[in-house]
Amino acid sequence: MEKCRISFLPEKVQVTVEPGVTLMMAAAEAGVEFEGPCGGRGVCGKCKMNIIEGETTGQVLACQYKVSGDLVVEIPRQEVYLNRKTALTEGDWEIETDPGISKLKLQVEPPSLDNQKSDADRLLQALNRPAKLRLDALRALPQALRAEGHAVTVVLAGDEVLAVEAGDRVKQGLYGLAVDIGTTTVVGSLVELTGGKTVAAASAGNTQNIFGADVISRIQHAAKGPKELEQLRRRVVQVINRLSEKLAVSAGIAPREFYQAAIVCNTTMHHLLLGLDPRYLAPAPFIPVVTEMVEIEAREAGLGIHPHAPVYVLPNVAGYVGADTVGVIVSTGLYNVNKSVLAVDIGTNGEIVLALPGRLLTCSTAAGPAFEGAQIKCGMRAQAGAIEKVKIEDKVSYEVIGDVAPKGICGSGIMDAIAEMFRVGVLESNGRLATGERASHLPESIRERIQGTGPQASFILATAEETGGDPVYLTQKDVREVQLAKGAIRAGIEVLLEHGGVSPADLDEVLLAGAFGSYIDKNSALGMGLLPMVPPEKIRAVGNAAGAGAKLALLSRKARQQAVEAARKAEHVELSTWPQFQEAFIRFLNF
Ligand code: FES
């Protein structure tokens, strides 16, 4: 059979594929950017594309549609969201910034017949210290010197001049990029490096998700060969570059003016970003290529910021405890405590840290992306239109981000909804939605929101009337996804406590981290059994602590050193070798 030529708009990219290939894989082959949150299983309905020319026309699910002829396809634009108040913009600490990079204003002596020294020599004379000029800086030097009477600003990293800009640009500030690459979501933060202020933050879906929603499917794809590994690498780099562009626009500068970056991510994302073969992470004994901090130049990673900008990819602890956990440890000060603190970072993987005097224990559980709104029927990221808080009394009330009609539900809303549904009896302790007779104890106003029966049952949070479109609801299947996620995290906590020889009563503090960590209601987390029973006043939501760790590493050499030490000091507890984990997982599936 003849090959099919597929053209993707608006990027105008073409690719030729064998008939029978899905539209999603054709788009992946073409390198165009879009998401498939359920990993192409055909259940999330979020990979819609528009066929405008071809054997059929109209909207299709790209992961399900198999091509059989030439097509012209339009991909709906996928947004980068400038976050309303992303946790990364919060907590601008009072820290002594020491990013290891600086901007200096120099007045360089003009050349003359008496001083025929080269531009570079005269610049170094004004700098008054030995330094090496990068080729890019040399290229910019002659024009920069002569544009504003030989007044220039140099960007200095260690003993290297990365860039030369005309005139006094010190007041414009010195910018860097902090990135938290999650399996589901990528968050970027633009930080002014001298004052430490976060100028803007933005997030976007991790478009690697077309190859699977979890790290194992991504590893499996990458293991097929170098081309597949490159597909994954390119996709995450595209997302970071798009975030950089959005952040740069919001600050009125160019991405090239980001002169440093720090990145946190789980170990799989780390390997995929760096193009390292992740295949030995998947089977026991789960071996990473490297755990030490990787320091590279932006251009080596393909990042669209200043090509020579130093990029610090924070160290990993183990195959499933990555730099993101190290970020949590650094930003919350857990690398050195004299009390007992439990920290839970909720993402697609749930990483848990138990800090005890002189000890740091870590483990990781495969929670799945339910708490990030993925694989949930009406799930969405925390952006305008997402229900973020839910309360159920005689009626259902909720808060929506952005003061608009609800469109879906995000992680904190899901957790609230489940905790409330369980509290009032819409959910039974085994996670079954109460239908028919079993719902007779509920007020009519709540009972009428329970639709369908058995696996088809669902609970309406926002009616079609309230949304002005489709209702927002949680299905029985959504509840099961949340049960799996919370069962895994809670079982991980139990094993770690046991390993550390402490009980919940011994804990001085419990930190709840995650991209939506600031918005989690601690009573909901307790109510649904995600956390062990501790007094609510001991629980503190610390927001995106992993991303905050990236920000600190961007701003401070000391923080980078702490990250290196924390990764070396951390003991990793391999849950798969603990039979108690499986027992606890089954026990904690129930609410
Ligand atoms: S339905 Fe296609 S990726 Fe989810």
Outline the structure in words.
Mean pLDDT is 91; it is low at 84-92. Among the domains are: 4-77, Beta-grasp domain (Ubiquitin-like (UB roll), Roll), CATH 3.10.20; 101-166, Ubiquitin-like (UB roll) (Roll), CATH 3.10.20; 175-313, Nucleotidyltransferase, domain 5. The longest helix is centred in the middle third of the chain and has 26 residues, at 226-251. Helix 8 (323-331) packs across helix 15 (557-569) and helix 12 crosses helix 16 (579-587). The strands form six sheets. Strands 6-13-12-11-14-16-15 form a seven-stranded mixed β-sheet, with helices on both faces. Strands 27-26-17-18-19-28 form a six-stranded mixed β-sheet, sandwiched between helices. Strands 2-1-5-3-4 form a five-stranded mixed β-sheet, with helices on one face. By secondary structure, the protein is of the alpha/beta class. Helices cover 29% and strands 25% of the residues. Bound molecules: FE2/S2 (inorganic) cluster.
